[in-house]
Amino acid sequence: MKRVEVASSVIRAAGYDPHTKTLEVELLDGHVYVYRGVPAVVYRDLMNAASVGQYFAHFIKTTYPCTRVE
Q1: CA-based angle 54:57:62, to the nearest 5?
Q2: Cys staple from 35: which of 24, 47, 52, 64, with CB 3.0 to 4.6 Å?
């Protein structure tokens, strides 16, 4: 999955697959997490948020099932 770099003190990049509703988040520490069942609007709002890290923490991190892959 292609990831897009973001301006954040926590997140390096994020990618999204609309067919599987899968969000991939790469943190600055190098760890990569996959979140499943994420609606496209949530990814869009994440990428357009004034604070990507705050949006991630409030609306994604504890809302969707997650697996650490790297």
Answers
A1: 165
A2: 64
